[in-house]
């Protein structure tokens, strides 16, 4: 494993590059991005090492504002920025002599599973996409939160988002809330299985907080609408009874159109 960096609009992105032993010819490369608030040292190496053993190169990176990457304020999620970071990781991998630029695969979990679809819809040279429990249906997620946590929680979450946005506009430090918390607490995901799951994966660089404005800017992100423009194979792994990234019957039927 090598520590590498690349730039996005002058900001350094921290990444880990894994190369297989056999480099007699340029090898395919899997670009790995984590989910909501995740960092590259949260379980991704487990996958990366297996891919490396199978003869693939792997580039796992931290998004701007997270982990070992630069970017202020810390813990800021902006979907357009993260899409730029993922795209920059692809461009960096293609620039390496060890990598076959025509054999780039995208691997994403949770939010970044959807990112892979969006990027592949534009970049026709992507070889394939693996979307693990991807965040595809913000409407279903909203309905689930409303049912489990109630309208009061939803309203409080939006108040926190507005507070953070107001502080941003006034040039003040961000207002952050925990990503996960125990039931009854104020967190983005105050759900027991989310809290337990993140706690098990927590790493040295994981910080359990996020700038609250993300609630105001993420609900319109719908990767499924880009599927019609994707030409490469996609493996979409939907988890039964997913408490963070559920899908509605409508979205499930939409996905069936593209199934083989």
From TrEMBL:
Entries under InterPro entries matching the protein: AB_hydrolase_fold, FrsA_esterase, Xaa-Pro-like_dom
UniProt keyword annotations, A-Z: Hydrolase
Keyword Hydrolase included in the entry's annotation: yes
Stored Pfam families: Peptidase_S15
Record GO terms (molecular function): hydrolase activity, acting on ester bonds
Signal peptide (residue range): none
Domain Xaa-Pro dipeptidyl-peptidase-like: 10-140
Name this protein carries in UniProt: Xaa-Pro dipeptidyl-peptidase-like domain-containing protein
Taxonomic path: unclassified sequences, metagenomes, ecological metagenomes
């Amino acid at each position: 494993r090598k520590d590498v960096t690349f730039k996005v609009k002058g900001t350094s992105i921290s990444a880990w590059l894994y190369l297989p032993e056999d480099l007699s010819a340029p090898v395919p490369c899997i670009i790995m991005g984590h989910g909501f608030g995740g960092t590259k040292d949260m379980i991704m190496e487990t996958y990366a090492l297996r891919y490396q053993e199978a003869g693939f190169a792997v580039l796992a990176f931290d998004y701007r504002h997270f982990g070992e990457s630069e970017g202020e304020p810390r813990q800021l999620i902006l979907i357009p920025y993260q899409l730029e970071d993922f795209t920059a990781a692809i461009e960096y991998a293609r620039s390496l002599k060890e990598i076959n630029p025509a054999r780039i695969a995208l691997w994403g979990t949770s939010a970044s599973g959807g990112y892979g679809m969006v990027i592949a819809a534009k970049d026709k040279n992507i070889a394939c996409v693996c979307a693990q429990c991807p965040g595809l249906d913000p409407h279903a997620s909203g309905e689930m939160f409303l049912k489990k946590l109630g309208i009061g929680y939803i309203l409080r979450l939006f108040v926190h988002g507005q507070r953070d946005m107001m502080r941003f506009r006034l040039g003040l430090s961000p207002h952050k809330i925990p990503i996960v918390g125990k039931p009854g607490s104020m967190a983005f995901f105050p759900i027991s299985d989310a809290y337990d799951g993140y706690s098990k994966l927590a790493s040295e660089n994981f910080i359990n907080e996020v700038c609250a404005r993300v609630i105001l800017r993420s609900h319109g992100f719908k990767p499924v609408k880009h599927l019609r423009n994707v030409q490469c194979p996609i493996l979409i792994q939907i988890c039964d009874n997913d408490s963070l990234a559920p899908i509605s019957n409508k979205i499930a039927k939409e996905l069936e159109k593209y199934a083989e």
